[in-house]
Amino acid sequence: MGDLDHSDGTVRVSDEQAGANPSEPNQAEPSQAGPNQAGHWVFGYGSLMWRPGFDHVDRQPALLRDHRRAFCIYSVHHRGTPERPGLVLGLAPGGCVRGVAYRVADEIWPEVYAYLLEREQPTETYLEAHVEVVLGRGGRVTATAFLSDYHHPQWAGALSLERQAELIAGAKGLSGRNIDYLRDLVAHLHESDTRDRDMDDLLARVEALEAATATAS
After folding, report:
1. What CATH architecture is 2-216?
2. Segment 64-92, tens digit of pLDDT
3. What pTM, to 2 d.p., does this model score?
4. Is the dihedral of CA 119, 110, 108, 104 positive or negative?
5. Is 130 in contact with 140 (CB distance < 8 Å)?
6. In sequence order, which residues have a C-beta less than 8 Å from that of residue 42 and are 6 or more positions away?
7. Backbone torsions φ then ψ of 34, nearest 5 degrees
8. Which of 34, 58, 67, 87 could form a disulfide with 91 if both were Cys (CB 3.0 to 4.6 A apart)?
């Protein structure tokens, strides 16, 4: 699959890289485009990979460079509440990440675009951007993606796996339990033969915490 063969998921970076100033050039410029732009590709790195929720004419594995998948966004809507926040995926600076690119037909782009804004931006936690991704069947395209806003109050930053597990265990929001979101991610990564040891470890930690809580009660 061309360039994609050189990545096996989220590339590990050093603690120094993970803690780099996120306002530096690793973050793509926010998109100023509206729903009428031609060539509509959408890049997903979280639940959009297995549950896009919109019609598309093409779906390919894709690679995004200079960003890595991480549970780095406090969730107060879909997987948590303001009183008991959970965590959802965002893109932290550095490394690269495998996801999925969808091509959307021009005639339905306005409704798909509106759906994406409603789904991804309930609390305006992300920045809409145009990013270059490498497609699994070859070639590069510019895709709409939702990147982490490092200056938003819900940006959690570089949390330890232990702290991530503490936040995810027991959290739930309008879209369900936080652990189910993590399970869906890990299952999809396994199905697509994408290895991410941190996500496997995180799921094991959360399951252990929830089991311990159930036993104690």
Report:
1. Roll (3.10)
2. 999 999 999 999 988 999 999 999 999 88
3. 0.74
4. negative
5. no
6. 48, 52, 56, 101, 102, 104, 112, 116, 143, 144, 145
7. -105, -165
8. 67
Q: Which residues are catalytic?
A: 120
Tokens of 29: 């410029």
> Would you kindly state where each structural domain of the chain is located, as residue ranges?
2-216
Amino acid letter at 156? A
The C-alpha atoms of residue 104 and residue 198 are separated, in whole angstroms, by: 32
Q: Taking a C-beta distance cutoff of 8 angstroms, is the pair 59, 100 a contact?
A: yes
pLDDT digits (tens, 9 = 90+) for 164-190: 999 999 999 999 999 999 999 999 999
Chain-centroid distance of CA 111 in Å reads 22
Sequence-separated (6 or more) residues with CB below 8 Å from residue 25: none
- List residues bridging with 129 in a β-sheet: 30, 145
